[in-house]
Amino acid sequence: MCAHQVFYSRKNFMYPDQQEELHQSWAKEVAYLDALFPDGAAYLIGKTNRDHWHVYLSGPESETVSNSLAGSPVLCPQMSRSSSQSTVHGVMQPSTSSDITVEILMTGLDAERMRLMYLGGASTEEGAAGGAAVERLSGISDIYPNAATDSYLFTPCGFSLNGLQGDGYFTIHVTPEPHCSYASFETNVSGSGVRDLHDPQATKHLVEQVTRVFGPKFVTVTVFKARAAEAPQSVADNAWENGVKDGLAKTADAAPLSFAPVDGYKAMDRVLYEFDHYWLRYAYYIRAD
After folding, report:
1. Over the range 243-272, which residues count as b (16 or more CB within 10 Å of their CB) and which as e?
2. How does pLDDT run across 22-70, given as a tens digit for each residue?
3. Can you tell me the distance from the alpha carbon of 186 to that of 223, in angstroms, rounded to the nearest whole number?
4. Distance between CA atoms of 172 and 93, rounded to whole angstroms?
5. Minimal CA–CA distance to 235: which of 105, 145, 93, 100?
6. Which three-class secondary structure state does DSSP give residue 226?
7. Which long-range contacts (CB under 8 A, 24 or more apart) does 160-167 make?
8. Residues forming beta bridges with residue 41, ordered by sequence position
9. In 3-state terms, what secondary structure has residue 31?
10. Cα separation of 275 and 91, whole Å?
């Protein structure tokens, strides 16, 4: 199978010394990836002395490389995307107008809300039954009410969900323990009767809905948008009304519009990156207690 592009990314670890040896430092991960992708590039986005995000992109039109994990060659990998506790995404074809992904990474979760993520909180049943109870009682099920989901409540604690809405997906992973509380949310569900992620107001509402579920103190938000994607006319018209030049608002290569303020949070860091095939907008928030 040929991956058109591959991304690998993750937030900085709370306890890097407790990871497997390969993941104990970003330098080790980059060296490993460079051996697979000779034209790859590594980035650190955000403040080095605060929460930040690591991203690795393989080079375009890469040659066949050896995949030591699968034990077989992989044809034309190009980029690598991942989030939270290290995940990898492969893009199987050139980017299209629907290619936009939002990730919300949260730490310092509200202890009272996290009681639902323990066995005996929302449910005394481990597994899918417990997962369904967490979805319902936490408000997760309200994010995409018509989605098909597969969730799991772990013993003694922890929660994971994979969901499908139309042609899109969303995932949630939660570690609720107070000393290392963490939750990640990722989705590419956009349009088709749900919020359009090209619209910064839609992203704002999504972030607010997700943060209401978990009550985090610290929030990292990233938006990957294909550079070939054209903003919907309604979004372009709204941008024009707010003073953005018509040529920028309506071009197929327009950067994602700046994030709207998130209720209850103060933006501490905002970054815009322009890659060959994608735009990346990054923001870091702290709860306004």
Report:
1. ebeeeebbeeebbbbebeebeebeeebeee
2. 999 999 999 999 998 888 899 999 999 989 999 998 876 544 444 444 4
3. 10
4. 25
5. 100
6. strand
7. 160/131, 161/131, 161/135, 165/189, 165/194, 166/192, 166/193, 166/194, 167/98, 167/192
8. 57
9. helix
10. 15
Residue range 256-283, pLDDT digits in tens: 778 889 999 999 999 999 988 889 999 9
Strands (E), the chain: 5-11, 41-46, 52-57, 65-67, 72-74, 87-91, 100-107, 148-153, 159-165, 168-175, 182-187, 218-226, 265-274, 278-287
The H helix count followed by the E strand count for the chain is: 6, 14
Separation between Cα atoms, residue 198 and residue 230, nearest integer Å: 9
Closest CA to 104 of 209, 241, 237, 30: 209
Asked whether the beta carbons of 275 and 222 are under 8 A apart, the reply is no
Cα angle value 179/214/208 (rounded, 5°)? 140
Q: What is 262-273 written as a DSSP string?
A: PTTEEEEEEEEE
Q: Rounded CA gap, 41 and 195, in Å?
A: 32
C-alpha span between 175 and 109 (Å, rounded): 9
- As a dihedral over the C-alpha atoms of residue 112, residue 113, residue 118, residue 121, rounded to 10 degrees, the angle is 80
| Distance from C-alpha of 211 to C-alpha of 106, rounded to nearest angstrom | 8
pTM: predicted TM-score of the whole model, two decimal places: 0.82
- How far apart are alpha carbons 96 and 190 in whole angstroms? 13
